[in-house]
C-alpha cells in the first residue's frame, strides 16, 4: 500500500478521527468555559480530583474484567518489562539532553522529561482509541511509572533519601490499588474459586468469582458509568487549566520550548526506535496496540507530581510551571499526529 493510500485510510478511520476530535473538542470546551467564567479557578482542580480518586480507579479495575489468553498475557508482560526498562533508559538519556544546563535546572528538566502525565492525560486518550484492552495495557505500563516517580523522582528532586510517606503514596493510592487488584484478578482468574454463570443465550460457563462483570453485574455496572467519566472530565479539566494561565510567559521561555519538544516528540521517538530494535532482534515483541499505548503514554505533558516536586523543593518552580503549560499545549497538538503515525507504523508489520 502506497503512503498516500495509508494516510487516506488512516484519516478516514472513524475510530481514529472521532478519538482525535473528541479530545480536542472537549479540551476546547473546557478552555471556552473557563474564559467565559462558566468555570471558576477551582473547577479544574475539582474535576481532577474526581478523575483521579474515582473515575480512573474504576476505569483501571473494569479494564481487567476480561478473559485471559496466552497472547494477551505475553503482551501484558512485554509492556510491564518495557514500562520498567524505559525509565531506566530515560534516566541515562536525559542527562546528555540537558548537558548545557547545570544544577537544579538540569535536575528539574530531566525529571520533567522522564515523567509525563500518563495517568491523567494518557489513559483517557488510550481508552478512547483502544478501549478496555488499551486501558488494561496502559495500567500495566504505569506500574513502572509509579515505582520510579515516587522513588527516583522524589530522591532526585528532594536531594533526600526515600521517605516512608512516599512509599505509602506509591501503594496506598486508589488507582494503584485498583490496578494491582485488577491485575491479580486478570492473571489468576483461572486459579480462583469458580462460580457458574448464565450467558445471554442461556449457556452456562464457569468464571472466577471476582470477575464482577459476570458474577456481580450490580457492582460492575456503576463502575462502568464512573469509568466513562474519566475521559470527558479529564479533558474538561485540561481545558479549564489552560484557560486560567498566561500563555505569553511560557511561550517566550526558550528552555520550556526545548523541553516540550523533547517531551512530546523526542521521548516517543526513543520508545519507537528501541521497541523496533527489540522487535527485529526478537528480544521483546509488542503488538501495534501495545506500541500505540506506549507512545501515547510517553507523549504526555509534565506529570503533576513531578511539577509538584519542583515547587515543593524549590527546584526552579517557575520553569516547572512554564514547562507544564507549554508541554500540555504541545501534547494537545502532537497526540493526534502520534495517533496517525502509530496507525501508519502498524502497516509495516514490524509490530504484530
UniProtKB/TrEMBL annotation:
InterPro entries named among the record's database cross-references: Mem_transp_PIN-like
Keyword Transport attached: yes
Coiled-coil region: none
Alphabetical GO biological process terms: transmembrane transport
Compartments where found: Membrane
Pfam families referenced in this protein's UniProt entry, alphabetically: Mem_trans
Topological type in the membrane: Multi-pass membrane protein
Membrane-spanning intervals of the chain: 16-34, 46-65, 77-97, 109-130, 136-155, 167-188, 223-243, 264-283, 289-311, 323-345
Highest taxon of source: Bacteria
Keywords attached to this entry: Cell membrane, Membrane, Transmembrane, Transmembrane helix, Transport
Cellular component per GO, a single term: membrane
PANTHER family documented for this protein: AUXIN EFFLUX CARRIER FAMILY PROTEIN, SLR1864 PROTEIN
Protein name: Malate permease
Species this protein is from: Cytobacillus horneckiae
Source taxonomy: Bacteria, Bacillati, Bacillota, Bacilli, Bacillales
Amino acid at each position: 500500500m502506497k503512503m498516500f493510500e495509508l494516510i487516506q485510510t488512516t484519516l478516514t478511520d472513524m475510530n481514529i478521527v472521532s478519538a482525535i476530535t473528541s479530545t480536542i473538542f472537549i479540551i476546547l470546551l473546557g478552555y471556552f468555559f473557563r474564559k467565559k467564567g462558566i468555570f471558576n479557578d477551582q473547577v479544574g482542580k475539582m474535576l481532577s480530583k474526581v478523575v483521579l480518586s474515582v473515575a480512573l480507579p474504576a476505569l483501571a479495575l473494569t479494564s481487567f474484567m476480561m478473559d485471559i489468553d496466552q497472547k494477551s498475557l505475553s503482551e501484558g508482560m512485554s509492556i510491564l518489562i518495557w514500562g520498567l526498562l524505559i525509565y531506566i533508559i530515560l534516566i541515562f538519556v536525559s542527562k546528555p539532553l540537558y548537558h548545557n544546563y547545570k544544577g537544579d535546572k538540569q535536575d528539574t528538566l530531566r525529571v520533567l522529561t522522564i515523567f509525563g502525565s500518563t495517568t491523567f492525560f494518557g489513559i483517557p486518550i488510550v481508552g478512547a482509541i483502544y478501549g478496555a484492552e488499551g486501558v488494561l495495557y496502559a495500567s500495566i505500563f504505569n506500574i513502572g511509572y509509579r515505582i520510579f516517580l515516587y522513588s527516583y523522582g522524589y530522591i532526585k528532586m528532594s536531594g533526600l533519601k526515600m521517605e516512608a510517606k512516599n512509599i505509602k503514596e506509591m501503594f496506598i493510592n486508589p488507582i494503584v490499588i485498583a490496578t494491582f487488584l485488577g491485575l491479580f484478578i486478570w492473571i489468576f482468574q483461572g486459579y480462583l474459586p469458580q462460580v457458574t454463570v448464565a450467558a445471554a443465550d442461556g449457556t452456562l460457563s464457569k468464571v472466577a468469582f471476582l470477575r464482577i462483570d459476570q458474577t456481580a453485574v450490580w457492582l460492575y455496572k456503576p463502575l462502568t458509568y464512573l469509568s466513562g467519566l474519566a475521559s470527558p472530565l479529564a479533558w474538561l479539566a485540561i481545558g479549564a487549566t489552560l484557560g486560567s494561565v498566561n500563555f505569553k510567559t511560557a511561550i517566550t521561555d526558550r528552555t520550556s520550548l526545548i523541553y516540550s519538544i523533547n517531551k512530546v516528540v523526542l521521548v516517543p521517538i526513543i520508545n519507537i526506535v528501541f521497541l523496533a530494535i527489540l522487535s527485529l532482534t526478537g528480544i521483546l515483541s509488542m503488538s501495534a496496540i501495545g506500541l500505540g499505548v506506549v507512545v501515547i503514554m510517553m507523549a504526555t505533558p509534565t506529570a503533576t507530581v513531578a511539577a509538584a516536586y519542583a515547587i515543593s523543593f524549590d527546584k526552579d518552580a517557575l520553569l516547572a510551571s512554564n514547562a507544564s503549560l507549554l508541554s500540555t499545549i504541545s501534547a494537545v497538538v502532537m497526540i493526534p499526529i502520534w495517533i496517525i503515525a502509530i496507525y501508519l507504523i502498524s502497516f509495516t508489520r514490524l509490530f504484530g
